[in-house]
Write the structure tokens for this entry.
Amino acid sequence: MIQVDHVTLTFGKRTLFEDVQLKFVPGACYGLIGANGAGKSTFLKLLTKELDTTHGEIIIGKDERVSFLRQDHYAYDNKRVLDVVMMGNQELWDIIEAKNSLYSQTEFTDDDYMRMAELESSLVIMLNKMPHFYLIILELVLNIILYL
């Protein structure tokens, strides 16, 4: 569970958020909508602890994480949709890139085979720990790609 506990954020004399309280519970899907400049990206920066709150705290469970992609409309133009989704989880993406790099080789050493096994094991462990909703998003993206 991720909990926003009495969070206030001010910039100078401007209060962007005041005494916000909410809980993100496992299994639920959330959307953040609002007008341009309303503070959506800023709120996400609070959740990822990229920004500190003025008051209150963001509580993230010890086995939970917040994954995100930076807002850059053109940064991912040459990437596959599935890859962009997985880039939101840096640890997962690092494992995938390392695997791809190893598997692109034409010759392998014993150390390469050991590293491949370690990466595959790490990937399975990560996927088993992922929240169910994240796996559903990956599955939906895969289905969209397969039908395009």
